[in-house]
């Protein structure tokens, strides 16, 4: 069995560990082993298909040669690893940095918000955007300082500034986040930018194909413009996409030069909520709220698993179909399905991101943005991992990932 030969460095007061010798300032293993803070481990992965940074959750991740869905499966390396590194992994203190990125050192400084509370700016005040900021106002008093709002329609800005600032408790809670009307040149003065602009939403009764894909062409052009502007403004916060189809729009934003770790898509939260709603109607699915998981896009390619450990393909397929078609049920009643998405995928999930809590969102993985349970922790991303993924489920995940990657 090979022994692991490691090199230790200090860069911008951060500890760097590498399997290869680097042209960096060296320090001793003794200095590193006694360190109690964050540490960074250099890997060399294809920049086009891999993240710039990620939380290392098991020792096998120290040796990955490419990112794929296998990283969702928990496994430890057969090569012995120093105990202090194992401890750092257990304590969520070891972050992988992909040195194939020319700007990999920026990871050491990446911190969207250094204050206790975040400033969030929301662009697009239609049905989803308006409902989302209402949720943030009601739920965000302990983590959001201010909610900036912008739309090309000044009347919408004024309406929501009036209305949302008047949402108040009988005791007039002073800690509810203030709603602030923004000018266009202020939209990236924030820790998190939330894209809720949507064009081309079919009218009720005109749903001839996947409604989300119908919106892609128009929304893609707009999100690309905002991503380009974010890059020009040197925006260093989170670029959150709520408009449909989130997974594909995230990829459009990535092409404009933002870091994949900045970009997150929020569409899967409501699919998990819808799956839980339907599961509640079937006794055999009563444990979904504990064991169930959602994967993939907010539409075609969605995968609902009744359980990972006790996966039942038939039950999962039934639940997936009901969940995927849920929006059509609301449309058949004569309404656009935006309330649950705005709150479950939007408000709740954005706040979970801020608080480093587990939630569903699309994050970059092997060349595609794919919805998965994850959390934003120590300014990087931790994916939920599993002891085992049944082969039938893994094949479905691979098909969905391939669809998103090659779209």
Commentary on this structure:
It is a single chain. This protein has 407 residues and is an alpha/beta fold. Helices cover 33% and strands 20% of the residues. The chain contains 13 helices and 17 strands. Helix 7 (246-254) links the parallel strand 11 and strand 12 (263-265). Helix 6 (216-232) packs parallel to helix 7 and helix 8 packs across helix 12 (339-354). The protein starts with 6 loop residues before the first strand and ends with a helix.
SSE layout:
Blueprint: E1 7-11, E2 14-18, E3 25-26, H1 29-33, E4 39-43, E5 53-55, H2 83-90, E6 94-98, E7 118-123, H3 127-139, E8 144-150, H4 154-165, E9 178-181, E10 192-195, H5 211-214, H6 216-232, E11 238-241, H7 246-254, E12 263-265, H8 268-279, H9 288-291, E13 293-295, E14 303-305, H10 313-324, H11 326-332, H12 339-354, E15 359-365, E16 368-377, E17 380-383, H13 391-406
Parallel strand pairs: 2-4, 4-6, 7-8, 7-10, 8-9, 10-11, 11-12
Antiparallel strand pairs: 1-2, 1-3, 5-6, 13-14, 15-16, 16-17
Helix pairs in contact: 3-12, 6-7, 8-10, 8-12
């Amino acid at each position: 069995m090979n022994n692991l030969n490691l090199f230790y460095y200090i860069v911008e007061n951060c500890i760097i560990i590498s399997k290869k010798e680097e042209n960096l300032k060296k320090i001793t293993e003794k200095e590193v082993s006694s360190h109690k803070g964050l540490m960074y481990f250099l890997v060399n992965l294809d920049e086009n298909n891999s993240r710039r940074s990620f939380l290392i959750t098991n020792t096998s991740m120290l040796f990955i040669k490419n990112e794929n869905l296998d990283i969702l499966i928990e496994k430890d390396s057969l090569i012995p690893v120093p105990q202090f590194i194992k401890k750092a992994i257990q304590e969520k203190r070891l972050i992988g940095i992909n040195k194939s990125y020319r700007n990999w050192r920026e990871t050491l400084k990446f911190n969207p918000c250094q204050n206790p509370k975040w400033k969030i700016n929301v662009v697009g005040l239609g049905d989803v955007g308006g409902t989302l900021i209402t949720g943030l106002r009601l739920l965000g008093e302990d983590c959001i300082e201010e909610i900036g709002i912008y739309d090309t329609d000044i009347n919408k800005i004024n309406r929501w500034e009036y209305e949302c600032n008047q949402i108040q408790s009988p005791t007039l809670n002073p800690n509810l986040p203030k709603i602030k009307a923004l000018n266009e040149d202020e939209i990236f003065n924030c820790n998190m930018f939330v894209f809720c602009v949507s064009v081309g939403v079919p009218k009720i009764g005109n749903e001839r194909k996947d409604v989300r894909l119908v919106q892609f062409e128009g929304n893609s052009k707009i999100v690309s413009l905002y991503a380009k502007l974010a890059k020009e403004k040197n925006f260093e916060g989170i670029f959150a996409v709520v408009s449909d189809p989130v997974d594909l729009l995230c990829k459009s934003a990535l092409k404009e030069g933002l870091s994949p770790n900045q970009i997150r898509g929020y569409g899967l939260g409501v699919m998990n909520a819808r799956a839980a709603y339907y599961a509640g109607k079937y006794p055999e699915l009563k444990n979904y709220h504990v064991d169930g998981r959602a994967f993939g896009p907010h539409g075609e390619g969605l995968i609902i698993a009744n359980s990972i450990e006790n996966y039942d393909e038939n039950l999962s397929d039934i639940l997936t179909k009901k969940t995927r078609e849920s929006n059509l049920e609301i449309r058949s009643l004569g309404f656009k399905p935006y309330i649950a998405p705005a709150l479950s995928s939007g408000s709740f999930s954005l706040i979970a991101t801020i608080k480093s809590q587990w939630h569903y969102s699309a994050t970059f993985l092997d060349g595609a943005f794919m919805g998965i349970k994850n959390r934003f922790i120590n300014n990087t991303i931790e994916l939920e991992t599993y002891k085992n993924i049944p082969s039938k489920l893994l094949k479905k995940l691979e098909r969905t990932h391939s669809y998103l990657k090659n779209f």
